[in-house]
Design goal:
Strand content: under 5%
Radius of gyration: 23 Å
Structural class: mainly alpha
Distance between the termini: 59 Å
Shape: elongated
Order of helices and strands: HH
């Protein structure tokens, strides 16, 4: 089990390398725009999941027609 978790450990050198690669790919000017878009997407997702939780009921307000006997 430890052999599986060990490669997934991320330390400071790995985080620094990831940040450098992102800076090289997108440049300093594009990163705030990307983060703003990511933040608004997360906010929309949270709002949608919150609205979904409020509207959920066991019968969901729909009546199922009874079968004729």
């Amino acid at each position: 089990m430890n052999a599986f978790i060990l490669p997934l450990a991320i330390g400071a050198p790995q985080i620094i390398l990831i940040v450098v690669v992102i800076l090289l790919l997108f440049g300093g000017r594009k990163i705030p725009e990307l983060m703003r878009g990511l933040g608004s997407g997360i906010k929309e997702f949270k709002d949608a999941s919150k609205d979904d939780d409020k509207g959920a009921t066991p019968d969901d307000g729909k009546k199922v027609p009874e079968e004729n006997k």
